[in-house]
Amino acid sequence: MAQKVLGRALVTAKWLSEAVRAGRVGTSLRVLDASWYPPQERNARQEFKERHIPGASFFDIEECRDQSSPYDFMLPSESHFADYVGRLGVGNDTHVVVYDGDELGTFYAPRAWWMFRAFGHKEVSVLNGGFKNWVKEGHPVTAEVSQPTPAVFKAKLNTVLVKTFEEMMQNVGSLRFQVVDSRPEGRFRGTELDQGLESGHIPGAVNIPFHSFLTETGHEKSIEEIQQIFREKKVDLSKPLTATCRKGVTACHIALAAYLCGKRDVAVYDGSWSEWVRRAPPRYKVSELKRNKA
Hints:
Helix content: 25-40%
Largest sheet: 5 strands, parallel
Number of helices: 12
Strand content: 5-15%
Number of strands: 10
Order of helices and strands: HEHEHEHEHEHEHEHEHEHEHH
Radius of gyration: 19 Å
Structural class: alpha/beta
Strand order of the largest sheet: 1-5-4-2-3
Oligomer: single chain
């Protein structure tokens, strides 16, 4: 019942495998592999070509972004997103299921889920447990690449779900919304480098590492467990909330977790720490390492 009420934010491998076997993947149901890995570690597109869920298409987060931005994965324009997903056969009435092949179970899929929602699409779900568990459970895979019939997608950016650098700067003083940072604790506290970047966090932010919401098998934790995690960190889901991370990816896990608890309006700071560390004044970059040196 909760799944239906929440617009199917998650679907199970069993549900999707039944849809695949019944031949329902097509105009009304599209499956997208949104995997991305550091190029020196894995090749997401090549792995997709070798095996993927039958009927799936590859959602390339490198292509579907603002390529003029100095930051990694900023949202593309409405027209760019509409053209891109339209070529993947996604229309405004299509139910989209996104997944990725990360060893954790889910990593980049919530970013794709949030992108669709940010551009006004309601029927979008994350495959609970990801490709890792799809394979583990013995569901079908293929190397056959499908050619979806192009569709017309009309995108309209929902600015409620996106925060800019300027809005985050204003919030440091006004505290109009809560901020949750999904990076590992050491990067948040400033005690370890953030993939080469100076680390630390935005003043007032609370740290909930994104993997806190995943079970050991890589599935989403129960709604009760997720609510408890937010409570323990004194995050009030009845009040405005924005998620941030390093580049706007794992922040989307916070948005998904809150959505599962019934909170649909969590915003993501798209530039996240990658932008903040370059643009914010030094006093707005909280770091234990700096404090200790001082």
